[in-house]
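Dig into this one:

. . .
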Amino acid sequence: MLHVLLYGNLPIRLYEGLLACIEQVDRESAKRLATTAGAMLTTIKGTGITLAAGVSSEIGPVEAQPSLRRLTSYAGIVPRVKQSGGPESEAKHGTVGRQCNRILKNYVVQCGTHLGQHGPDDLREDHQRRTANGQHADFGLARRYLRIGMRLMRDNQAYLPEELRTHADREELARYYLKIWPDLRKKWQRAGALREAFAPENPLGIWRLTIQEIYGISLPL
């Protein structure tokens, strides 16, 4: 009984200590992400800071990536294609190669799953369509995620739904940015890195100031 009285709360204290350590690591990770182009990945609905940090850290500097095809192969999300019997025969899609960055693969496939469940309407519909056609929807969305993400990081732009990329006027774009702002701000606030994320010298901070100036809107911190 004395042993229970002395040490009965020890598991609770250990659990609380582990939670505190995890929260500290998450805050530091968010603050580091805020200084990189990977912060732009958080503008995609369904992509949180943890996944964005994991993906961008495994990709490394975007300017060092030679091509999207090589990156998707490196991530292990491109199925091998075999064709025999001449050019008229149908190509057969096999499994993905084993030689890949498994950490990056895990992150981007998780992103594909999240986009199918919580992402923008156009990406969720794409996931549903792939599933209905018997395709591996998570892998398909993972490839699309990498393509979108590389563009956002290289151009320092926020994600735009497909219908707004080509046929949107100034007012429509302004409404969209005002709509996504509260959720984007909340992501970084919860991570304890709001100030760092939107500092004027960091990618999201530069984006925010630019959007406010171009569209004459306020994105308050």
Summary: The chain has eleven helices and two strands. Residues 63 and 154 are 8 Å apart (CA to CA). The longest strand covers residues 92-96. Residues 33-215 form one domain.
